[in-house]
Specification:
mainly beta, six-stranded mixed beta sheet, about 500 residues, 6 helices, twelve-stranded antiparallel beta barrel, elongated
Length: about 500
Amino acid sequence: MNKLIQTLLAGLLAVAPVVATTNSGKTFFGARDTLNYSPLFNAMCPMMEKGKDAFGADISANVFWKQSYNNKAMAQYFGNGSDATANGAINVVKTATAANTAATALESFHIDHDHTNNLSTAANGMAGDLGLSPEHRELGVTLAWTQCLDAVVEGLWFNAKTVVVDVETNMKATVGSGETKSTAAAGLTGKGLVDFFSGAASNATQSALANQKISTKALSDTGIADVAVSLGYNFMKEDATTISGSLDVVIPTGNTAKGVNMFEPIIGKGGAHWAIGAGLNADFNVWKSEDKKHSVNFCADAAYKYYFDAKQTRTLGLAGASDSKAFPAGHYALAITATKTKPAAPFANLGTVDMNITPGSHFELNAGFNGMHDSFCWDLGYNLFYKEEEAAKLKTAFADGTVSIIDQDYNVATGVYGTSDFKVQSTAAATGAVYFVDINAARTPSQLTHAVVGSLGWVFKDLKTPIRVGIGGFGEFSGETNDALETWSVFGKVGICF
C-alpha cells in the first residue's frame, strides 16, 4: 500500500509545477469534459457483493447539475486586456489614432467606419465597454456498465461509460453607461455595441460580424459527450485488497467547434478526437466489524489519456509585429482582402479557419475513503485533474498579403486605401508585417484543478437484485489562474447489481 501511495504522490508532483498566468484576448475555451470528471462515475459506495449465481454486472446512472462560478476570471480570459493587465470587457475607444498609423487598441473606426463615407471621427462612432461575465453550466446523466468476465479469464472485467448532456454557455454581455452609438447615415444609424458584437450591424460597405459573435442570450447544445470503454484485470483480489489496471479507449461522439460564437457550448472535445489511455485502481479495507456489516475502505485510482488531433474551426487572434499582445480584440477590426473590394468585413469573418487541434495528455487522480454501515454508505475524496496545453496548427497556411486591417482613411465608398496598407501576415518576421495572426488565441491553455467530492447513499440489500441510491456533490477550484472553469455540482445516483 505504501508503494502505491508513493506512486500516486509522484504523479501529483509531476503535474504540480504549472506556472500561474492570467490569460487574455482568447477566442476559444475548451472546458474539462464531463467524461473526464470521474467523481461523477466513481462516487457513492463501494461495489456491492454479488451472489455466486449473479451475472456479474453493475449498472449505474447519475443525474447531475454542474455550474461554473469564476465568472470574473473567465471574463478576463476573453477580455481585451493583456496577460499583464487583465480586463473583463471588450473595450472600444473613440477614434484617436491618426491616419496612416497602426492602432494598438480597438477603436470606433475599426467597427463603425461609414461615418462620413470616408473618415471615422471620435464624435460619431460606436464606442464604449462591453462587459463580460461568462458562465457555463451542464445538466445531464452519466451512464456506466461494469461487467465481470471471470467466465472468460478470472480477474478480467469490462467497463463502458458515457454522458448525455445539455451544455449551456452565457457571456452575460452588458453595455457600460458610457456607450456612444453610431450616427452614420447609411444603415448604421443608432446601432451600438450589442448590435455589432451580436452580428446585427451592417450596410453596403460593412459586413456584419459572422464569427466570434458575443451573444446576449444563453447558447446551448445537447448530445452524447463521447463514449469510453475499458478492459481491465484484477492483479490482486483478496479480502482486504483489490488492485487492478485497465486499458482505455475514448470514442468521439460530441459536437464540433464552429467558431460562430465566442464561448460556444462544446460537448466532448469539440471534434472527432479519439483517445487511448491506461488506468490503475486500488481498494484497501481499513477496518471491518466482526459481523461484516460495517467497514471503512481507502480507495485510489489514477488514469492517463492521450487525445489525438482532429479538425476544428476556430478564430485566429491578431498581434502586432513587435508585441504579441499589441492589438487585443483585433480580430473584430474591419479588414479587406488583397483586391480591396467592398464591403469590408471583421477580421474574425476572414480569420475563422479550419485547424488541426491536438488536446494531448490528460491525467486524473482520485483518493479518498468510503464506508458501509449496514445499509448506509458514504464517500469522501479528493480529485486532481491536469491537461496539457492544446497544440494547434492551421490546415491551410495563412497567405501573406491577402488580408489587411483598414486604416482610418480607408475610403469605404470606393474601396481604396489612403496611403497605408496594414497587412496581416503569417508571422511577425514576414515582409511588410504590421499585424500577424495569433494562433495562440485559439487554443485552450494547460489546466490544473482540484476538487473535493462527497456522497451519501443507501443500499437495499434484501432485494433479489440489490439497488443503491444516493446523493452527492463536489466543488472544484483552480487557484489563482483563469485557465480552467471552477465549478460546483450536485448529483443523484442509482445503481443496480445483478
